Amino acid sequence: MKLKVDESIVLELIDHHHAETLCQLVKVNRQHLREWLPWVDHMRSVDDFRKYINGSKQRYVNHTEMGYVVMANGVMIGRLGLYNIDLHNKSASIGYWLSQQWLGKGIITRCCKAVIDEGFRHLHLNRIEIRAALENYKSQAIPERLGFKKEGIIRQGEFVNNQFVDLYVYSVLKEEWNHKTQH
């Protein structure tokens, strides 16, 4: 499954053929990514990525995740997904990362818009959240740009680089998003 974001950006549902490229992309961006992402140091081999992709595909079948690779003109540049999908409570979270050379071009913001639209229109979600570390200003800029509400702080909500970090929680509700996109 593919989700077209714009003329050059496409989100492809993660699959087995992405494992090697994804491994290489993380390897090249390891220092950049490990600052905020707790899983980076545990993902070292193509086999690690194959196992992750198997899990992601199973979570997709179980309707609890939609994990994508971000493609720019056919080149993989990052990952983005709708995670912790809870169809009963109609909620989910968005997580994302991008290769360092592609930062600052508005790509993740545009990808988030496409996934938010997908979540509200096709999955009939009511609430989507994004969490970002208090010191991760670039990641915080995404939900702020998209009009999410800052709800509060999850104290020591994630263990990254051998320390706990506090996370801001941002959310948008379907009614807010629909109202925003109609104007």
Automatic annotation (TrEMBL):
GO cellular component: cytoplasm
Record bears the keyword Transferase: yes
Keywords: Transferase
Any GO MF annotation of the entry: protein N-terminal-serine acetyltransferase activity
Keyword Transferase belongs to the record: yes
InterPro entries in alphabetical order: Acyl_CoA_acyltransferase (IPR016181), GNAT_dom (IPR000182), Ribosomal_N-acetyltransferase (IPR051908)
Organism domain of life: Bacteria
Residue ranges annotated for the N-acetyltransferase domain, each copy included: 20-175
PANTHER family: RIBOSOMAL N-ACETYLTRANSFERASE YDAF-RELATED, RIBOSOMAL-PROTEIN-SERINE ACETYLTRANSFERASE
Record-given protein name: Acetyltransferase
Organism: Niastella vici
